[in-house]
Amino acid sequence: MDTDQITQLVVDIAKRARAASLELAALDTKTKNQFLNQLADKLVASTDAILAANALDLEAAKALELSGPMTERLTFTPERIATMAEGVRQVAALPDPVGVEIERLAPPKGFDLRKIRVPIGVIGIIYESRPNVTIDCAILCLKSGNASILRGGKEAFHSNMTLAEIIKEALQATGIHEDAVQFIPTTDRWALNVLLKQDDTIHCIIPRGGESLIRFTVENSRIPVIKHYTGVCSVYIDAAADPDMAEAILINSKCQRPSVCNAAENLIVHQDAAAQLPRLAKALHDHGVELRVDAHAKALLTASGLPLVDATAEDFATEYTDMIIAIGIVPDIKAAIELINANSSGHTECIVTEDAAAARQFLTSVDSAAVFHNASTRFSDGFEFGLGAEIGISTDRLHARGPMGLNELCTYKYVIHGTGETR
Amino acid sequence: MDTDQITQLVVDIAKRARAASLELAALDTKTKNQFLNQLADKLVASTDAILAANALDLEAAKALELSGPMTERLTFTPERIATMAEGVRQVAALPDPVGVEIERLAPPKGFDLRKIRVPIGVIGIIYESRPNVTIDCAILCLKSGNASILRGGKEAFHSNMTLAEIIKEALQATGIHEDAVQFIPTTDRWALNVLLKQDDTIHCIIPRGGESLIRFTVENSRIPVIKHYTGVCSVYIDAAADPDMAEAILINSKCQRPSVCNAAENLIVHQDAAAQLPRLAKALHDHGVELRVDAHAKALLTASGLPLVDATAEDFATEYTDMIIAIGIVPDIKAAIELINANSSGHTECIVTEDAAAARQFLTSVDSAAVFHNASTRFSDGFEFGLGAEIGISTDRLHARGPMGLNELCTYKYVIHGTGETR
């Protein structure tokens, strides 16, 4: 396809999605859930076809020289397909967010004024690598009454095309507008350029992927973007921290799953809790974590004999997603808050303390989406928050901040019932 | 100043605003209200200085050949300054939105999880013409705990600089960080280009002005933008409309203040209510409204002898902000909904009907920020909705839709209190 043909294709997809979205907004919960359950059945029934398409992607992955972890994330197995189908059934079981009354207002003139939750409209999702994102995003958008346009990466192209076909069959089988979920059938970069200019028909773009993809999206989009950037999360051990709790929360935050965005990357210790540092550092080391220390922390740990690396200023602003941690000592809680606000990605931070006033100060002044007092950063997650499912974790401030569930895929409208009121 | 100096200036303003915003987020309500009341006093006390600066702008307006209405909007009088000061006192009296618990969640692990309203951070406001916007935006941002960067138009430059000086005095007098409200002291277009790229320090841009300003902002901003586009609002007279109510709501929606964004631009009539059309058209004509009619409406009105203009398709998508209305006849409510969704700017629409099922269908399927049943579109306004004040009316869907009050100038954070929970 040449660029004119791709432009035509993407503009047409966006227009059809917009038309479908107007129908979807009024669709009943039962039909949406029928679709989801049908889709789950069809995914399991199509296991062989999905595996065959996935084999083509895995073959191509060798030529692309994908890393081991990336190839691993790309790989489907019958078990993973069954798990994906189970996830679809779980979304069917969640309450429908659409039509819910969010607030009843009290206008001076006394007419009936309510804020009602409604779908956003058309959502464009741009993602890389893992093909199960195709299903995750399609089902969350559909359950929340949104039409979706999916734009996956070239690594998973064959898998994605097969999943898109199965979604279309499930839409047809339940009588839902078949343009409600559309997959862009080309990985040409030009399609992305065109997509990001369709602000007449697409209402929101959610990029899920590496930093370069997100920067490209922000730079080129005329459509509002909800970003899911990195997670540079800190655990702060306050002067009044309980030592056992400090160790348990720190180790869980750093080591339970270091590759994810809510894992801790920094340990910040109040100088009055410096006596706790050797124990914390040893526990980290015993779990295989590399220790990158500032000058003060180095002085406190030299006697321990633990292997230490000098931390640079950038270390405190780096998402390692690996078994590495930056360690700094601060003179007081104010310095800890400043260090965090200067370096954090605004995702998740934690204070460990028995001092309620210190906790209050930290929770108020740390400017991140989720701020924890005496609990692991690993709980910063849609499922752990009880949202039922999440499409990602926003590091933006507008519209949605932190884990985004079905409610966050909606906007609202004001609905007024009057009796002939005029001004 | 050359472009390098302007770049330096704007980057510095944005950085200082970000630093101020971190202090503002924790500022108590009493201090914020002291600032507002001081500002109100100082505005009245500075009446002569404001009028003198305003005289310079009015003098320049002649050279700029500003239209009569634009010059009128630019003009301060002692009465208008007193009214502006009174508006500041009213915002002082509004409840503080910051720190309010929006929702208490029920996470599976049982820790205490609350969604707390917090300021967005740094808000950039780009506006034209009316200098009182400088005060309106500064006070609403400050009351909601946000630092603001104000970028007014060249028409009101002297007035704005004087108002900015008075704001700074009131900040100093109440001990608030003086970078909490900053006005960009140049009208060079380059400053706007630089401002829109400061996504590390500015969190939200609100453009208030004409369509070209808004398009420029959307096209060039890396920062999320909340748009305030046009209001192409429709009144739909259903088959089951009460004739007296239909006339009262139509005339009020169209004629009470035709220059504002919530005034009606289109009249759409169900063919089974066609008998009401001559009466409605006559009432519009008697109020001085020009009638632009589709072929069907023309046929129904020819016998009336009223002056008629043939409507084009674009007429139904035009914001006249004048005494002009487009009139169309539709075969059924579905056609009315489709006509509205195809032409509306998504601001405000109204159905007049005694049929509850028709009302429900309209309110569900019309995709606008505010949908009225049996009340005038003129109520689509922050004050009339009981929000206390508004910074504008969003025609966007993300974050805020419709009238934006203090709550809509805030985001939220998740605050968690645990007892040592780990995953």
Write the layout of secondary structure elements.
The structure is a homodimer of 423-residue chains.
Chain A: H1 3-24, H2 29-45, H3 47-64, H4 68-74, H5 78-93, E1 101-104, E2 112-119, E3 122-127, H6 132-143, E4 147-151, H7 157-173, E5 181-183, H8 189-195, E6 204-208, H9 211-220, E7 233-237, H10 243-255, E8 264-270, H11 277-286, E9 290-293, H12 295-301, E10 308-310, E11 324-330, H13 333-343, E12 348-352, H14 356-365, E13 370-375, E14 392-394, E15 402-404, E16 410-421
User: What's the order of the H and E elements of chain A?
Assistant: HHHHHEEEHEHEHEHEHEHEHEEHEHEEEE
Q: Largest interface here, residues on each chain? A: A-B, 73 and 73 residues
Distance between the termini of chain A: 57 Å
Percentage of residues in DSSP E strands of chain A = 15-25%
> Main sheet of chain A?
7 strands, parallel
The name CATH uses for the topology of the largest domain in chain A is Aldehyde Dehydrogenase, Chain A, domain 1
**Topology, number of strands of chain A:** 16
**Spatial order of the strands in the main sheet of chain A?**
10-9-11-8-7-12-13
CATH class of the largest domain in chain A: Alpha Beta
